[in-house]
Amino acid sequence: MSFEMFSNLVAAFFTLCIFSFLYKDNPFYQMAEQLLVGISVGYGVVYSYERIFIPWFYQPLFLKQQYILIIPALMGSLYLFRFSRNLSWLSRYPIAFSMIGVGAGVPLAMHASILVQMRQAMVPLETFNLFLIFLGTIAVLLYFYFSKAHTGLYGRFTTLGKWYMMIGFGASFGLTVMARISLLIGRIQFLVVDVLKIIK
Question: pLDDT by residue (tens digit) across 20-36?
Fold first, then answer.
């Protein structure tokens, strides 16, 4: 038996273990689930050590003598006290600093998050599609303006904004479903073509 065939059989076994959850929760599914989580955690630890700890902490601190990195390293290590009953309060300090950092970064990120969208809405309405985008932007913004009652002509216009949002949410949900179906098709194709060799 070649290594490729052996690896395909192992992958097919765990694929069927995951699919067995469609019938009911069972030990095969739990084994595959826990094995996936364990392998993911192990890979994450090794990846973090090789790609984050070594190049961003060990090499700059011990090889390049950038001792200023001791401060963020100590601050980051306080996260580990989250697992202690008595010293878990120490983990609040890095959380507070990161929240302050995020809070200070939001105004700086205004260009990327808000101004770009505003600029895209301020283009000449040369085509019907651009007019629909402009109309939807105004209708959705007015839908969230609650200082005026949504009645009469204004209410009908804000209802248009609600329809725009529902269409957008539906499209996002449809893309999510299609992504999952694509994964399912890939697994079934693997079982049929690579393992059972039914289709060549």
Answer: 999 999 999 999 999 99
Terminal-residue alpha carbon distance, the chain: 20
Q: Do residues 167 and 152 make contact, with C-beta atoms less than 8 angstroms apart?
A: no
* Closest of 79, 73, 74, 110 to residue 96, by C-alpha: 79
pTM for this one? 0.62
Q: Which amino acid type is present at position 187?
A: R
Asked if 143 contacts 161 with a C-beta cutoff of 8 angstroms, the reply is yes
3-state secondary structure of 117: helix
How far apart are alpha carbons 12 and 190 in whole angstroms? Answer: 8
Q: Where are the alpha helices (DSSP H) in the chain?
A: 3-19, 27-48, 70-77, 92-108, 110, 116-121, 128-143, 152-189
CB 81 within 8 A of CB 69: no
CA dihedral 102, 108, 114, 118 (to 10 degrees): 180
Domain ranges for the chain, please list them.
Answer: 125-200
